[in-house]
Design a protein that fits this description.
This protein is an alpha/beta fold and 526 residues long. It has three domains: 149 residues, no CATH class; 193 residues, Response regulator (Rossmann fold); 150 residues, Rossmann fold, CATH 3.40.50. 37% of the residues lie in helices and 17% in strands. It is built from 16 helices and 18 strands. It has a seven-stranded mixed β-sheet with strand order 12-11-13-14-15-17-18, sandwiched between helices. Strand 3 and strand 4 form a beta hairpin. Helix 15 packs across helix 16.
Length: 526
């Protein structure tokens, strides 16, 4: 089990859930049991003791609340090689007992056996429970409250879910320069939801769209999203929310709210290790595309070691991106690449071009935003130096089509997806949905991602089953393998992977005709 961050964090969680408790009509005992289950705080207002492992290590129960391992719904979710059991009361008291994955067998629990399991770590047959299971020293009142809440979990309904609807949210610009894009995405979502509903919905539940307004400014946009999530009706998941500029805040919110987020519209992916548990991206971001280009330098151009330079921005995001590329190269036996760090908006491209020229670099891979590749190429041209210039699509301005002639056949861009053959049946189906939505023009890449995001949403809901929960949805998405979302490379996820199509296409820049020319097939990173 992972310790909770602090009692303050536990108290905050209680506050966030207060409205949900009232709506659910919890009794006083169930409310007390919920607090104990989710935060480790007992009826006295203090945290009971919990003993961990065979050494008798004692910690406050607030560091090891039940929900950490068994999940907010009590069903358990595999993590770190441990599979916590389903501890809803109806599961515990099943008359035929249980046979666990480790072949441990026992009969049904009753209230006495439940108390012994919690306090002494023994099942009804006297078998020792998994060593990861703490032993809690609870008062009689706390035992009763916990049992009451485990019984209540039978009727626990996920946010935004009713017997006949699933409410799905999004965050879209409805005014200002991005309004047309936001309105097109909304129309596409509504058209796709209507088509799913016309076929009976998902397990008989209709999809219902709820929209919060993206304001461009981080705090206002997140405040609007918070109001949507807390409006009483609830939201089960988000699909295609605009989150440009506050990607890390979105991943933090999704994790805190236990909210699945699919196909967000972002500038760059949140790369913090272990931070992104609830956000499922469809396509690679800049760092992954830089790895695709680094692979191309090695496998196709035959470069290695100090032939290759990573041109990256200063700061944690740039460090993580460069580390990802270096790790990718090291796996292929390529070490010793050059790393040149710039300060976005402050560094002079000419200084970096000269530094890399002096080091004899033959290929420059741009690893992050903030330094104009066109200005960098102009500076290199002024020095008569023409390295292979490798630019991830998100960092490639239109000006790369008109670089100096010395860069002919030396400029490569990586994209997460290419339009492909518009005559394919998938494109025909997409075009029909656009027509139903009355979308004549719009941000094509965003619309394609939205269209595929809804297909992934429907797949996740189907995998979660009729007894719908956000935990089941997350677990179902983590088992998606080579899923055909229509217009993208196949999507694959697992417990640590949150980019479905991990890889990209490499295109060369034809400076004579000012066009991009695809080179080969999809290049996988997994």
């Amino acid at each position: 089990m992972r310790p909770s961050r602090s009692l303050r964090g536990a108290a905050l969680l209680v506050g966030l859930l207060a409205a949900g408790q009232a709506a659910a009509g919890l009794s006083a005992a169930e409310q007390a049991g919920k607090r104990l289950f989710e935060t480790g705080i007992g009826a006295s207002g203090e945290a009971p003791q919990a003993q961990v492992g065979g050494g008798g290590l004692t910690l406050p129960a607030s560091s090891l609340p039940c929900a950490n391992c068994h999940g907010p719904d009590g069903r358990g979710r595999p993590e770190g090689g441990v599979t916590p059991p389903d501890i809803r009361w109806s599961e515990l008291v099943k008359p035929y007992g249980h046979v666990h994955t480790n072949r441990r067998k026992h009969g049904p629990f009753d209230e006495g056996a439940f108390r012994i399991a919690v306090s002494e770590g023994l099942d009804p047959a006297g078998n020792r429970l998994d060593p990861a299971m703490p032993r809690y020293l609870l008062s009689a009142a706390d035992y009763g409250h916990l049992k009451a809440y485990l019984t209540h979990l039978e009727a626990r309904i996920a946010p935004g879910v009713s017997d006949d609807t699933v409410r799905v949210g999004t965050l879209l610009p409805l005014r200002g320069p991005l309004a047309e894009a936001g309105k097109a995405v909304r129309a596409l979502l509504e058209a796709q939801f209507e088509a799913i509903n016309a076929e009976g919905g998902i397990y008989g539940r209709r999809l219902e769209l709820a929209v919060a307004e993206y304001m461009g400014r981080e705090e206002e946009s997140l405040a609007n999203l918070d109001r949507l999530l807390d409006d009483g009706a609830g939201v089960f998941a988000l699909v295609s929310p605009f989150a440009a500029g506050f990607e890390t805040r979105l991943t933090d919110l999704a994790k805190a709210r236990n909210l699945p987020v699919l196909a967000p519209v972002v500038v760059e992916l949140d790369m913090r290790p272990a931070a992104n548990t609830h956000v499922f991206h469809l396509l690679s971001g800049g760092a992954e595309l830089a790895s695709v280009l680094a692979d191309y330098c090695v496998e196709t151009l035959g470069l290695a070691g100090r032939d290759i330079a990573l041109l990256r921005p200063a700061g944690p995001a740039g460090e993580l991106a460069a580390a990802e590329v270096r790790q990718r190269l090291a796996a292929q036996g390529v070490d010793g690449v050059v790393e040149e760090v710039f300060r976005p908006g402050l560094s002079q491209p000419a200084a970096h071009a000269e530094a890399l020229r002096r080091k004899g670099v033959r290929a420059v891979v741009v690893v992050g935003p903030g330094l104009d590749p066109v200005a960098f190429a102009a500076a290199a041209d002024g020095a008569g130096w023409y390295p292979e210039l490798m630019i991830p699509g998100p960092f490639a301005p239109q000006g790369v089509l008109a670089l100096p002639p010395g860069f002919a056949s030396k400029v490569f861009v990586a994209y997460p997806n290419l339009p492909g053959d518009r005559n394919r049946p998938a494109w025909d189906a997409y075009a029909r949905v656009l027509a139903r939505a009355n979308i004549v023009q719009g941000p094509q890449a965003t619309l394609v991602a939205t269209y595929s995001g809804v297909k992934l949403l429907a797949e996740g809901l189907k995998r979660a089953g009729r007894d719908l929960s956000q935990e089941a949805m997350l677990e179902g998405l983590e088992k998606v393998q080579d899923f055909d979302a229509g217009l993208l490379p196949p999507l694959t996820y697992n417990t640590t992977r949150r980019i479905g199509a991990l890889g990209g296409f490499v295109v060369s820049v034809d400076l004579d005709r000012h066009v991009f020319r695809p080179i080969g097939q999809w290049r996988r990173l997994d």
